[in-house]
Design a protein that fits this description.
single chain; 64 residues; mainly alpha; 75% helix; globular
Length: 64
């Protein structure tokens, strides 16, 4: 599986949260922000591409 960008990978984790688990998706978001792999704008853009804005919004607001 190809990794396009850290932000897209986080959005994909939320997209497939039922298969990999919500805790994995939240941890990916938290790690991405603490390691400064992606900005909030990049994460939001990736969420729009994957149509995960409504799912990711509460977690992004809590972490950011």
């Amino acid at each position: 599986m190809r990794v396009y960008s850290p932000a897209k990978t986080v959005a994909d984790c939320f997209k497939y949260r039922n298969k990999i688990g919500l805790d994995v998706a939240i941890e990916a978001l938290r790690d991405c922000r603490t390691q400064r792999k992606a900005t909030a704008d990049e994460l939001w853009r990736a969420a729009k591409v994957c149509r995960m804005t409504n799912v990711m919004r509460p977690y992004m607001e809590a972490i950011l």
